[in-house]
Design goal:
19 strands; BirA Bifunctional Protein, domain 2; 4 domains; RNA-binding; 8-stranded mixed beta sheet; OB fold (Dihydrolipoamide Acetyltransferase, E2P); alpha+beta; 5-stranded mixed β-barrel
RNA sequence: GAUUCCGUAGCUCAGUUGGCAGAGCAAGCGACUUUUAAUCGCUAGGUCCUGGGUUCGAGCCCCAGCGGAAUCACCA
């Protein structure tokens, strides 16, 4: 027999008829004892602890004793909790209170009740049973609202239900919007129905769910336990929507290109491999849409963008998830200057809108001005005022190191100071960039969005060299809050140079890399057909959202970040 | 992949030198017609992440594993 011995059926004087009734219902309905059953089924039942058993017992009680079906149906005329709260009418509430007081003196006095009413739905996050009064707090995606119930105002059966509801249950309540004596705006419910009985033990009432692992694995619990989670989800959705509106306003066409590609191109990253059965063909989850978007420029679309997922088979940390969302943009006859202007305008506009969203919630916050929004990010206050800082790669290098990048002896000396022992084997350009990343990048003020432009050509193999100085590339990277948000380029459209750069790139590839790097002949064919000169941009959408929502980790802005399955134990051993 | 830290009741967390497993909230029963983390009385609730080892004795010490977080590497 499954273990339900934690629930006593005798020996304790405190048990009443309905405890035992719960227990009978529980053992009769929920636990189907089968002498032939195997251990696994029994274990599943045993997993249900005391808290679940109590909830199942209430479920059975609702059905058997009250004839209430707690898994409800379609409901009409619902108002969000925020809207219901907004309906509150002070004068009507005062008049109602006065008439109730008058009737206590004189029973023939008329009852005045012009309070607006509302029908609301939500999940119970607090429940207080005070005898003939019950107070509960409902939560929906617009906020919290108290529902107050007086025994005198409700049918006896419904009041019984109201007293026995649990944290986590979903209910619908209807009645006038008023205040309690303590001034709390609430729905004074005359009707109350349970529409979903929550059978899982809820998270804590005070601290919510704070264990990060539990929050990511059980996001649906995190969402109702921690309202900021829904706030971030909504903010992300608004940000993406605003990006689309912005791009559409500038005549960019949104397109969708393959996410499963025969060749993983467009970036230097390790791909995931998958397989098409009917074609018996290995495919790569895309690491970038770039080479397909450029084909569209070849075909004649002047301005295209794509917002979608890339998949990169690499490490996971606060700013990296294996699948992440980026926006790539290509603009015929643009260059990295026009793309910088686009990027700056877009990010500025997003910050302006986010500032307004934040002020709508908290008008008193100091968030700069509409032209120069200042948004919090951790300990920083990032100023999104235009123009963003622009600094050339070599100038930033020299300012940080005290000597120019062309002084290669001093650069190599600085690199050795970083503790690298492979310096002598590296090309000059790679050593310069190493020192740049370690010493110059950290000097960028994280509170000031900054474009770093004119990277060395030698480390930018897919970028068009600068027309005045071929040793530098028309490439720009934007940094905000210490994160690289995305690079922009003047794209290469000379097919012969592109071929030689590809070939050169493939030469340095090791055995492991060669399994997923190959020469994309179709793309080269497209370039030979002819691509207009173009500016291109890759923008990390998750990172933009991290910044604008002041989130600590990419996992907070991705609904279901990748987690190792808990049960995948020892499978790989052998 | 490396290093460090973490894993104890449904949730949030204590746990002393290795000596009977603790609290608050949540849960069950009772009281309460204006609560606000309601209050008051009673009751129940544990695979101390898993598996080994040391020890008379392990939540605590050692080894291995699993999961998570941070930092690093890869990368965006």
């Amino acid at each position: 027999m499954p273990r339900i011995s934690t629930l006593r059926t005798s020996g304790s004087g405190s048990n009443t008829w309905w405890t035992t009734s719960f227990l009978r219902s529980f053992s009769a309905e929920s636990v189907q004892f089968d002498p032939m059953s195997n251990g696994t089924q029994e274990e599943q039942v045993q997993d249900e602890g005391e808290l679940v058993a109590a909830r199942r017992a209430k479920l059975a009680w609702l059905r058997d004793e009250l004839g209430v079906e707690p898994f409800g149906r379609h409901v009409e005329g619902l108002t969000s909790l925020a809207d219901a709260r907004a309906r509150f009418d002070e004068a009507a509430d005062v008049a109602h209170e006065a008439s109730v007081a008058a009737r206590k003196e004189d029973e023939s006095a008329p009852l005045v009740d012009d309070r607006p009413s509302a029908r609301v739905a939500g999940r119970i996050v607090q429940h207080r049973d005070c005898g003939k009064l019950v107070f509960m707090v409902l939560r929906d995606d617009t906020g919290d609202l108290q529902v107050s119930i007086s025994k005198a105002d409700m049918a006896p059966e419904q009041f019984k239900v109201a007293k026995k509801l649990d944290y986590g249950d979903i209910v619908v309540a209807s009645g006038p919007v008023g205040r309690t004596r303590r001034g709390e705006i609430c729905v004074w419910a005359s009707e109350l129905e349970i529409h979903c009985k929550s059978l899982a033990p809820p998270p804590g009432k005070h601290h919510g769910l704070s264990d990060p692992e539990a929050r990511y694995r059980r996001r649906y619990v995190d969402m109702y336990a921690n309202p900021e989670t829904i706030r971030t989800i909504k903010a992300r959705s608004r940000i993406v929507s605003r990006i689309r509106t912005f791009m559409e306003g500038r005549d960019y066409l949104e397109v969708e290109t393959p996410m499963m590609q025969p060749m993983a191109g467009g970036a230097a990253a390790r791909p995931f491999v998958t397989h098409h059965n009917a074609l018996d063909l290995d495919l790569f989850m895309r690491i970038a849409p770039e080479l397909y978007l450029k084909r569209l420029l070849v075909g004649g679309l002047p301005r295209v963008y794509e917002i979608n997922r890339n998949f990169r088979n690499e490490g996971i940390d606060r700013s990296h998830n294996p699948e992440f969302t980026s926006m790539e943009v290509y603009e015929a006859f643009g260059n990295y200057e026009t793309i910088m202007e686009l990027t700056e305008s877009l990010i500025h506009e997003l910050a302006v809108a986010m500032r307004e969203d934040l002020l709508a919630l908290e008008p008193e916050r100091d968030l700069g001005t509409a032209e120069e929004p200042i948004l919090p990010y951790g300990d920083l206050r990032i100023n999104y005022g235009r123009p963003f800082r622009r600094v050339r790669y070599h100038d930033l290098f020299e300012a940080a190191l005290g000597f120019p990048a062309s002084d290669i002896e001093r650069v190599r000396a600085a690199a050795r100071e970083l503790g690298r022992d492979d310096i002598d084997e590296l090309d000059d350009a790679l050593v310069v960039n190493l020192v740049f990343e370690e010493r110059a990048e950290p000097t960028i003020d994280p509170a000031e969005p900054t474009f770093v432009l004119d990277y060395p050509s030698a480390i930018s193999p897919l970028t068009r060299p600068h027309r005045d100085d071929p040793s530098i590339a028309e490439r720009v990277d934007i940094f905000i809050g210490g994160m690289e948000i995305g690079p922009a380029y003047t794209e290469l459209n000379d097919p012969d140079i592109q071929l030689s750069k590809f070939t050169e790139q493939l030469r340095g590839v090791d055995d492991e890399e060669s399994t997923f790097r190959s020469l994309d002949e179709e793309f080269l064919d497209a370039l030979r057909v002819g691509m207009p000169p173009a500016g291109g941009l890759g923008l990390g959408i998750d990172r933009i959202v991290i910044l604008l929502t002041d989130s600590a980790s990419i996992r907070d802005v991705i609904l279901f970040p990748l987690m190792r399955p808990v049960d995948a134990v020892d499978e790989a051993d052998g």
